[in-house]
Automatic annotation (TrEMBL):
SMART domains reported for this sequence: Lactamase_B
Recorded GO MF terms: 3',5'-cyclic-AMP phosphodiesterase activity; 3',5'-cyclic-GMP phosphodiesterase activity
Name the UniProt record assigns to this protein: 3',5'-cyclic-nucleotide phosphodiesterase
Gene3D superfamilies given in the database record: Ribonuclease Z/Hydroxyacylglutathione hydrolase-like (3.60.15.10)
Pfam families from the UniProt entry: Lactamase_B_2
Source species, domain of life: Bacteria
GO biological process: cAMP catabolic process; negative regulation of glucose mediated signaling pathway
Metallo-beta-lactamase domain mapped to chain residues: 17-220
Amino acid sequence: MKVRVLGCSGAIAAGCKTTSFLLDDDLLVDAGTGVGDLTLDELARINHILITHSHLDHIVSIPLLVDSVMNRRTRPIVVHALPETLEALRAHILNWVIWPDFTQLPSRERPVLKMEPLAAGQVLDLDGKRIEVLPAEHTVPAVGYAVEGRTGWWAYTGDTGPNPALWPLLARRRVAMLVIETAFGDDERELAAASKHLSPSTLAQELRSLARDVPVFVTHAKPGGMGAIVTQVHALDSGHRIEHLEAGQVFVI
């Protein structure tokens, strides 16, 4: 399985794109601004979108993507998310005010977009990809995802604060790569706690439950903040190999 990092920042600036990953060529995990780097042909090959939660930086490209490829699709793109996330999309984005409701276009009988609810703990099979829905702890209902590849599982926490329910689930899997959010430095640890994000000190506490041989990649830092966060993470001597993601990276799992 090929994992392409389209975006991995917590906000936008030159060179910073919000969260989205393209798995092989047909599955998006989150739909941040990085989706805009795909060609029209690449956009048209996407069949499924897994969304972690309803915050704008993770959903912003859904309506624009669907609009771009509507005339190129013979089957609907399916958005998979928690029921609360899907309802937020319907109520606040695809509401005919902010954007048309593409679950009814070009017709109610043959829409270009479908929505499928999921729940933490569920295991999905999407066009041959096995996916486990992971729990997350955020300010809105949220999940993460683990996707099985040839060498193990690619695990992505989504936006989350301390998440004790996650680690027993990962312990049962051969995790080939963990992508875990660390949105703020320890100088803003109170803000991180209030917004249910991780900072380096809480990241180190979380990683105590992770096997030492798992490659760890931190994501979701605000523009300009990743360098300081990585420095702080390494200074904590967690015992893990920790790197930061960059848009444009490609991994084979």
